Amino acid sequence: MEAPGGAAEPMPRQIQAKVTGYAGYTSRAERRSSDQLLRAHLISRLEGLASRLNGAAEHAQSLGAPELSEPLSRLQRKLSTICEGLHTPSYLESSFFESTALPAELLESIYGCELALLGEVSELDDEISDLDVTALSEAELQERALRMSDSVDAFNQALFERESLMMSGEGE
């Protein structure tokens, strides 16, 4: 995203454009609420995507095509598992939230992970929006399911990196 004049928009502002109320992690007073807002946003989006995947899987099943239904059901289960982890992340008691100041490099890395999370959710949303199990062959659906699975895996990787950064975050 570009700011007026062609400069890149600061990462926290890019996140704020997608997550209402998000303030970033510069201020210790805003860290917990920003983390909670981001997680709530991601959970809401992922639960919606999981529900849509479940609907598509049920539709494929009703067409008598369990071979089309199973890859979608697997993705739905993966998203549900990720949501469970977002509800209770392991870093909530880390020093990340209590440090007076955090290194700029750490914050930039965390913001980069968060932008990646938001980007993967959008890509997955696009894939699911274009999904029509009645119009796809089994091979086409398998290909789509692989692409969606890659997005879920990339999301999970960014989530793991973000959590690791927050757990190891050294501040003052």
Describe the model:
The chain has 172 residues and is mainly alpha-helical. The protein is built from 5 helices and no strands. The model has no long low-confidence stretch (mean pLDDT 89).
How would a crystallographer describe the biggest sheet? none
Pattern of helices and strands: HHHHH
Helix content: 55-70%
Intertermini distance: 31 Å
Outline the secondary-structure elements.
Elements: H1 11-16, H2 28-62, H3 66-87, H4 104-129, H5 138-168
Helix pairs in contact: 2-3, 2-4, 3-5, 4-5
Summarize the structure in short.
The protein is mainly α and 172 residues long. It is built from 5 helices and no strands.
Task: Jot down its keywords.
mainly alpha
